[in-house]
Amino acid sequence: MNKKIQVVFYKTAAGNEPVREWLLSLNLEDKKILGSDIKTVEYGWPIDMPVSRSLGNGLYEVRSNISSKRTARVIFTIIDSYMILLNGFIKKTQKTPQNEIDLALKRAKEIK
Question: Helix, strand or coil for residue 78?
């Protein structure tokens, strides 16, 4: 089975990759869960709930239930055949926080 889209990390002007850094800060179990969910999107795109959903404005989120009954989200955009990971965070509220969406939108605009 071939990947339908290829994962790429958003890179700042300084060369940092905030989502990669965030993923690396997580424990091994959580990294594996998020990695598996991202891989599901790579191979299954377009894919919908429960793994992914549209946030509007060209943004989507990977939805992961990680250890300790926590919820993680990775916000991404699709450009050509690339899934560009823009923002990652532990979700603490029912609704995806607007500041997390705004950060992803800002990063998406930088790369377009």
Answer: strand
